[in-house]
Amino acid sequence: MGAGSKQTGFAMERGRAVLAAPLLALAHWALPPRCPGCAEPVEADHRFCGPCWGQLRFLDTLGCTGCGMPLGGLSGRCGACLADPPRHAGVYAAVAYGPIARELPIRLKHGGRIGVAETMAGPMARRMPPGADLLIPVPLHRWRLWRRGFNQAVLIGEGVSRRSGVPMARQVLQRVRATPLLRGLSPKQRRAAVTAAFRVTDPAAVKGRHVVLVDDVYTTGATAGACVRVLLAAGAASVAILCWARVIEGAGD
Ligand SMILES: [Zn+2]
Ligand SMILES: [Zn+2]
Q1: What is the pLDDT of residues 15-69, one digit of tens each?
Q2: Distance CA 108, CA 112 (A)
Q3: How far apart are CA 10 and CA 152, in angstroms?
Q4: Which residue, 55, 156, 165, 197, has fewest beta-carbon neighbours within 10 Å?
């Protein structure tokens, strides 16, 4: 796909939390429009080709009142939420995780196609949880930020913020540890270990706020769940999760 040669535009920006806006625009401008799902040329930015579009499953119904999981037209709560009520205020995803949906975060994170963040932000902004008043991106640990050069959740969050008017606070939640080793730990110990990786730097900024945590993909919910616990402990009124794609099959957190 030749993505490697296209990364040079922002390689020198590595280590900085966010790309400078003019550089972002330049990198974006320099790349020809390609389908975010398969990289075939398309007529305009942020457009999918026909086959990819046909394979995307957009999630627009409310689903489970606990987590937003589609319930096939039924109302109420899914089995997982009945058994173990979530502490978050819902998971709002633009699309179901699948072969095409999965390509966008991969192109963004590993292919350096930063314009893909905007492609994801559009449908995500339309899924904004009601009453939201602050966006917070899931943070990366410092060394991962250094290696990648950007936090994909920040880039996506900026696009969502611009479209929705909901402000984003990108420094309030920090990842103080890299992913801990979880082998040999009980579920409860795992949860504690992941939660200890996050810290709220400014509790006053989240106190009483209806926070929306922004991430690219929601899979097991372990990382997002840790962020939710830390934000609630810091005084947030509620924390919902907004993501591009969520895993639907094999539900359960
Ligand atoms: Zn395509
Ligand atoms: Zn549920």
Answers
A1: 344 555 556 555 555 667 889 999 899 999 889 999 999 999 999 777 888 888 8
A2: 5
A3: 14
A4: 165
CB 196 within 8 A of CB 180: yes
d(C-alpha 47, C-alpha 35), whole Å: 6
Query: What's the CA-to-centroid distance between 152 and ligand 1, angstroms?
Result: 21
Ligand 2 geometric centre to CA of 86 (Å): 8
How many A from CA of 5 to the centre of ligand 1?
A: 21
Domain boundaries, the chain: 4-246
The Cα 197–Cα 17 span in angstroms is 18
Least distant ligand from the CA of 74: 2
pLDDT digits (tens, 9 = 90+) for 213-232: 999 999 888 899 999 999 99
Ligand 1 centroid to residue 100 C-alpha, Å: 8
**Residue 2: exposed, middle, or buried by beta-carbon count in 10 A (0-12, 13-18, 19+)?**
exposed
Q: How many residues does the chain have?
A: 253
Instruction: Output the CA 136–ligand 2 centroid distance in Å.
Output: 22
